[in-house]
Amino acid sequence: MPALRVFLALGSASFLFAAASSTPRSPGCAAYEHVQKWNGTAVDDGNSCTSAKVVNGVTTYDSAARDGLACSRGSNPGKCQSGECVPNCATDPSMCICSSAADCPAATECSSWTCDAGTCNRVPQKNGMAIDAQTPGDCQVVVCNDKGEPESRTDDTDKPGDSPCITNSCVGGAPAAPSLNAVGTSCASGMVCDGNGACVNCLSAADWMNCGANCAVKLCQGEACTDMSGQQCETGKCVDGSCCESDCTGECMSCGVAGAEGTCTNVPFYKPDLSYIDGMKLEKCDSSNLSTCNGMGKCLSYVGGICSNDTDCVSSVCQKDMVGDPFGTCLGATGEPCKNSSDCASGICMNLKCSQ
Question: Of 175, 178, 128, 132, which Cα lies nearest the Cα of 153?
């Protein structure tokens, strides 16, 4: 079908648009040269696996057809691959039929083709020379062999890239195990190598022990510490046995909660706060005072503890023997330990636990 032409007159300018040609470039070809024209005539490159575009009279082949689309080179059927028609006979060029070299497989860095007496013949190029496309750091180099094919060969100089704390190498054409610099080796201003080969500004407790007395960095937040002055810690604070983000002196707050070391967070339900002392009572929040944390930042009395109001108790129940008594005894909340049902706010003690 001939190209469809539509003329539009706008002022003194005329624009010519051409629809895609539906004529195959070679017998049996299912991929067509798609052409767009602006003020010019497209120059067909004869490659059914590309799309052509003409802008101001200049033809470019700017996109490839879908890989696997049927195509042909001369009388040789094939499939499009990366914008080239690769004939099925490329694996056995002696089976390719040609009238010119254009009917043979596409030339590569390692080979070109000639058509001799109707048969495609490969002409090796650059024997022993490296091709342009290489994979850096894979301990290999791709060269053209004497058959005109790319071939991967050992190149132990093509090692993976080093980092400030890691030195890489190749052995027998494969990356060797990386060599890590010693823990504490300076790798940048105020930074040292850790045990994993990273350049860091603080260390884990295990790495810090290997860094030496004059280690240039300190323990990271959340790491275990022993010097309560905080001099071991990057944060400058050692609280509840961990390098902490803050002083964390609040009621039932701790920097040593399992899974949240280094972060000042609520002490879990029914756990003591050994570092907290009530400023007025000078009492610790622990079993010595029948008190514990409620999981929400409050130290309250548990079952059997002395109370004056319901708000003093974990269970929110302060039982007084007589109306008007200033003090009473906290009953147990669900889950608190008990000996008798009378210990529990619910009146039920089962398996030594208050229940509902």
Answer: 128
